[in-house]
Amino acid sequence: MQISTSYRFDRAIENVTRAQQALAKSQTQLGTGKQLVLPSDEPVQAQLIERLGSALARQESFAKDLQTVQHRFEVEETAVRASMTTLTSFKDQVIQGGNESYANLDRKALGVALRNLRDQLVDLGNARDRAGQYVFGGSRVGAAPFVERDGAIVYEGDQTGVFVTTGDQRLQQYNRSGADVFARVVRQTADGARGVEFFDVLDDAIVAVESGDRAGLERSLREVDELYAHATLTLADIGGSQSNVEVQLSVTDDMALRLKAMRSEAEDVDYAQTVSEMSKQMLALEAAMSSLARISELNLFSYLGR
């Protein structure tokens, strides 16, 4: 079977074109650092890379939310620890108020000191995170949860839990109600038991110190101990929440690292392999162009002259 010169010429052109395209693709891969020049080149691989990218973005979003929660718990921990220290100082002042040798002026001075400590506790109850949100206001994060109304400190937040997504099918509550942290005590009276709010306990203690009310002082010391004990439990609960967040953050970071490695394997170019492949492609292109040059020289006259 005879093969025409034009057919051989067309085949040579195709070989040169393919070699040029392969070389251009390798050069682009080296330039971009990516295996895929066009998604249409490898649709399955492109879809895999896209899925891995979406999964990685989710893990990074989870990590960001976990870090926000972690900071929130740190603010809570700092506020509760400081509250415990302040309550200890408050109790010490109340104990001094039991000194029978104190004159009225001494008791008034103790009352001033106790009010200052109470005000410090109000400030701690109105602690804010780095975003300026009140951490103990429940879902009402834009206004101070503890405010003074008619001489008494009242709670104006709510007890609504706020949750963030910190993993696939995993939610984390990241707020605590001020009414739960600065909790009431149960006071036994002649009329039965009744709940007394945190700051009302402190105000009653101040009145007992200033008036020298022995029964009131004894009751106040017991109730301040209850406030301190509840703060200790709250601190332990915050510590447990922090541990959970740290574990989840570690899991999320590990998953993100694995996804990055998988995406890199599917997406990033192997430079050593690509350089080696490009060297072969350059040789193939030179061979194809040499072959094309020889075919181009062929004509009927050179054939007859042989």
Question: Could you characterize what this model shows?
Answer:
This protein has eight helices and six strands; from the N terminus they run αααββββαββαααα. The protein has 306 residues and is mainly alpha-helical. It folds into two domains: 55-262, Up-down Bundle (f41 fragment of flagellin, N-terminal domain), CATH 1.20.1330; 271-306. The strands form three sheets. It has a two-stranded antiparallel sheet. It is rod-shaped.
How do you describe this structure in short?
The chain has 306 residues and is mainly alpha-helical. The protein is 68% helix and 9% strand.
Keywords:
single chain; about 300 residues; mainly alpha; f41 fragment of flagellin, N-terminal domain; two-stranded antiparallel ribbon; 8 helices; about 10% strand; rod-shaped
The CATH class of the largest domain is identified as Mainly Alpha
What is the number of E strands?
A: 6
Shape: rod-shaped
Structural class by sheet pairing and helices: mainly alpha
Low-confidence stretches: none
**How far is it from the N-terminal to the C-terminal residue, by CA?**
21 Å
Compute the CA-based radius of gyration. 38 Å
Can you count the helices? 8
Kindly report the average pLDDT value.
80
Q: How much of the polypeptide forms β-strand, as a percent range?
A: 5-15%
Helix percentage range:
55-70%
CATH architectural label of the largest domain: Up-down Bundle
Biggest pleated sheet:
2 strands, antiparallel
Looking at the structure, the CATH topology of the largest domain is f41 fragment of flagellin, N-terminal domain
What do we call the CATH homologous superfamily of the largest domain? f41 fragment of flagellin, N-terminal domain
What is the string of SSEs from the N terminus onward?
HHHEEEEHEEHHHH
Q: How many structurally independent domains?
A: 2
**Which sequence of strands runs across the widest sheet?**
1-2
